[in-house]
Amino acid sequence: MKILVTGGAGFIGSALVDRLIELGHSIVVIDNLTWGKVKHLHSKVKLYKADIKRRVLQEIISNEKITHVFHLAAQTDLQEFGTDPLTEAKNNVIGTLNLLECCWRSDVQKIIFSSTAAVYGNPETLPVGEDHLIQPQSFYGLSKYVCENYIHLYQKLYRLDYTIFRYPIVYGPRQDENSNGGVVANFLTKMIRNHSPVIFGDGTQSRDFVYVQDVVEANIQALYYGNNQILNISSNVEVTDQRLLEELNQILGMNILPLYEPGAREEIECFCLDNARARTILNWSPRYDLKSGLIETVNYYSNILDYK
Ligand SMILES: NC(=O)c1ccc[n+]([C@@H]2O[C@H](COP(=O)([O-])OP(=O)(O)OC[C@H]3O[C@@H](n4cnc5c(N)ncnc54)[C@H](O)[C@@H]3O)[C@@H](O)[C@H]2O)c1
């Protein structure tokens, strides 16, 4: 098995790479380093600083004799997507299409794709299962859904196997505080500096937060299970912004009050993803509850921000 991780210098990708190397795999990473950081990459990785939209991808995949691909490279900044759907479609859709073309023309057996809960849009029932209506409310969600469909078609036409994962909000060490979904990193970096985090709305908005190591373990299981399946990877727990703040205050031993600002109109009020299918098919379950995941995350940010 020879593994390629696209976006391997990013938040989730670099954690996945660390674990794959720990398990003894040989890893190639392709990342254009727009958001990814070399300092987050394990020293045993072979890094190609390249864009997944470029022709050179074919050469890399063939020369390296890649058999399995974790595809995480994507433009994930929702703000930017809202205003620039063209750039986003080029990066995510065209990038994924180029990758699929290169994969089936080489010896790649399987692609494991990081998609998003944003494909579902406004939930009609909670928790949201994989068979829920697909009605993305953002260009980001739509672009990921288009990628999912291409991946499905390549399996039908060229027998390139896949597992598609849909994540809600992933949190943990190395996340960019300004990234889409980086709410934990955003709250924490402010609180550690003794500043108030901003809560949009009245704090009752709820979301599903899954710890990055749980996402990593699900990806590893997909090397062996879950062929041609779409699976939610989540905690299956609704957490309000108010509760998130309370938990962080408790772990930090602080009592920081938030600033409240009006919520965006398109914000989804409550969200929670059903992970029952992934539990059965992957023989996986989340090992971190909110508190244990937050403790790990607080430790990381406290160290890098030199919290006293
Ligand atoms: N973090 C979350 O909460 C979350 C939730 C749902 C889905 N996802 C998905 O998981 C994946 C990883 O997310 P993340 O939070 O680690 O993001 P990230 O921005 O930290 O990582 C993405 C990486 O891809 C690289 N990249 C982007 N475009 C590229 C291109 N054209 N060619 C080569 N490299 C490119 C970036 O430099 C970065 O290192 C993404 O596909 C994202 O859509 C993340």
Quaternary organisation of the protein chains: single chain
DSSP strand (E) fraction? 15-25%
Which percent bin holds the helix content? 25-40%
Highest-level CATH class of the largest domain: Alpha Beta
CATH architecture annotation of the largest domain: 3-Layer(aba) Sandwich
Mean pLDDT: 94
Strand order of the largest sheet: 3-2-1-4-5-6-11
Secondary-structure-derived class: alpha/beta
Indicate the low-confidence ranges by residue numbers: none
The shape, in one word, is: globular
Separation of termini? 45 Å
Indicate how many domains the architecture comprises.
2
- At the fold tier of CATH, the topology name of the largest domain is Rossmann fold
Account of the protein in words:
This protein has 308 residues and is of the alpha/beta class. The chain folds into two domains: 3-170 and 209-232, Rossmann fold (3-Layer(aba) Sandwich); 173-208 and 237-275 and 289-304, UDP-galactose 4-epimerase, domain 1, CATH 3.90.25.10. It has ten helices and 13 strands. The strands form four sheets. The chain has a seven-stranded parallel beta sheet, with helices on both faces. The protein has a two-stranded parallel sheet with strand order 7-10. Strands 8-13 form a two-stranded parallel sheet. Helix 6 (183-192) packs across helix 10 and helix 8 (241-252) packs across helix 10. The radius of gyration is 19 Å and the shape is globular. The protein starts with a strand and ends with a helix. Bound molecules: nicotinamide-adenine-dinucleotide.
